[in-house]
Write a structure and sequence with these properties.
alpha/beta; Transcription Regulator spoIIAA; four-stranded mixed beta sheet; 3 helices
Length: 103
């Protein structure tokens, strides 16, 4: 997982890679919460490198989004692999992260 903060930005970009499943969901949660603490505005997620995404990973994303909202921050998915997009689409959560069915 890579974390970066583009120059002149108050957001952190997080780009997990590979399989994000039950075994990886705790590490994902920890990394996202740590990144959220370090940013004044929120997180931009690049999920196009994710090859597997299950309900545990979705649960992490939803919990981190709630945490961010409580702090006046946002979590936005800037790019998603087909599997991530499909899970978000099937669960009706695309719009919560700034995506649409056409993205």
């Amino acid at each position: 997982m890579t974390l970066s903060s583009p120059a002149e930005s108050d957001r952190i970009v997080v780009a997990p890679r590979g399989e994000v499943d039950w075994d990886a969901h705790e590490a994902l949660h920890r990394n996202l919460v740590d990144a959220l603490r370090a940013t004044p505005s929120g997180l931009d997620l690049r999920l196009d490198g994710v090859t597997f995404w299950d309900c545990a990973a979705l649960g992490v994303l939803l919990r981190v989004r709630e945490h961010a909202a409580a702090e006046g921050k946002t979590v936005v998915v800037r790019s998603a692999s087909p599997i991530v997009h499909r899970v978000l689409e099937l669960t009706g959560t695309l719009g919560l992260f700034g995506l649409s069915a056409e993205d």
